[in-house]
Design goal:
By secondary structure, the chain is of the alpha/beta class. It has a single domain, classed as MoaB/Mog-like domain (Molybdenum Cofactor Biosythetic Enzyme, Chain A). About 50% of the residues lie in helices and about 20% in strands. It contains 8 helices and 6 strands, in the order E-H-H-E-H-E-H-E-H-E-E-H-H-H. Strands 2-1-3-6-5-4 form a 6-stranded mixed beta sheet, with helices on both faces. A hairpin with a 2-residue loop joins strand 5 and strand 6. Helix 2 packs parallel to helix 6 and helix 5 crosses helix 6. The two termini are about 30 Å apart. About 35% of the residues are buried.
């Protein structure tokens, strides 16, 4: 499989105005490039539903990226609107990713249950919300990292991706029948 093409969107009023350095976007970019994946776009926008939506739509519909990671705007403050903007533009939700991230994060901090992050698919692009903290964003990325290449294969309709599901499932059944 080719290297994944990733776009990173930081959502922060203060960072978009230059009042605070964006640390989570660059942290994600560093991890992504360290994996050999390609960062095709990176941007900082304010906590504004129309701005977030228009950026997500433009990136997803351009067919330039396989995955869009957002960072920031997933909490409880009145300006945290990233989940609402994401839900408005996706075609299908992928709740298992957000559930896995929250479950893993709960092993680290009880504050994880305050995350409202969502994940979903728009056309052939996976969109995943991460928290705004660099540490938490990377922890969440690490949680879902093992499934991302396969998720992209499935979204793109790769025939090999489907067959690997059947092979894996068949292998599991064979082990069960063999008493393993």
């Amino acid at each position: 499989m080719k290297p994944l093409r990733i776009a990173v969107l930081t959502i922060s009023d203060r960072s978009s105005r230059g009042e605070r350095e964006d640390r989570s976007g660059p942290a994600l970019v560093e991890r992504i490039t360290g994996l050999g994946w390609q960062v095709v776009d990176q941007q900082i926008v304010p906590d504004s539903i129309p701005t977030i939506q228009s950026t997500l739509v433009a990136w997803a519909d351009s067919d330039r990226c396989d995955i869009i990671f957002t960072t920031g705007g997933t909490g409880f403050t009145p300006r945290d609107v990233t989940p609402e903007a994401t839900l408005a533009v996706i075609d299908r939700q992928t709740p298992g990713l957000a559930e896995a991230m929250r479950a893993a994060s709960l092993q680290i901090t009880p504050h994880a249950m305050l995350s409202r992050a969502v994940a979903g698919i728009r056309k052939k692009t996976l969109i995943v919300n991460f928290p705004g903290s660099p540490k938490a964003a990377l922890e969440n990325l690490d949680t879902i990292l093992p499934v991302l290449p396969h998720a992209v294969e499935l979204i793109h309709g790769d025939a090999e991706a489907e067959s690997s599901h059947r092979k894996l499932h068949r292998s599991d059944q064979e082990e069960e029948h063999a008493g393993v």
